[in-house]
């Protein structure tokens, strides 16, 4: 499982490229779900929007 590092204080969601693979990478953070979904449309690679837990873990459960 990917764990976020250096999370901005306002980040609640992350846009993750190549989810579920060894190439999984956090592309950017967003403070709202709508903002994260809008950012996700800008990528050609497969991306997923994930919620950032207080522990830094990422989850697809909202």
Secondary structure topology:
Elements: E1 13-17, E2 25-30, H1 33-40, E3 47-52, E4 58-59
Antiparallel strand pairs: 1-2, 1-3, 3-4
Structure description:
The chain has 62 residues and is of the alpha+beta class. The chain has one domain (13-59). The protein is built from one helix and four strands. The protein has a four-stranded antiparallel beta sheet. A hairpin with a 7-residue loop joins strand 1 (13-17) and strand 2 (25-30). The radius of gyration is 10 Å and the shape is globular.
In a few lines, what is going on in this structure?
With 62 residues, this protein is of the alpha+beta class.
Fill in the keyword field for this structure.
62 residues; alpha+beta; globular; 4-stranded antiparallel sheet
In which range does the helix fraction lie? Answer: 10-25%
Compute the gyration radius: what is it? 10 Å
Total number of β-strand segments?
Answer: 4
Helix/strand-derived category reads alpha+beta
Tell the overall outline: globular
List the strand order in the largest sheet.
2-1-3-4
User: How are helices and strands ordered from N to C?
Assistant: EEHEE
**Terminal Cα span:** 17 Å
Task: Tally the helices.
Answer: 1
| Oligomerization | single chain
Quote the average pLDDT: 91
Tally of structural domains: 1
Spans where pLDDT lies below 50 across 5 or more residues: none
């Amino acid at each position: 499982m990917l764990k976020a590092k250096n999370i901005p204080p306002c980040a609640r969601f992350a846009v993750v490229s190549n989810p579920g693979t060894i190439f999984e990478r956090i592309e950017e953070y967003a403070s709202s779900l709508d903002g994260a979904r809008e950012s996700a449309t800008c990528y050609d690679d497969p991306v997923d929007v994930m919620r950032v837990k207080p522990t830094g873990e990422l989850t697809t459960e909202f």
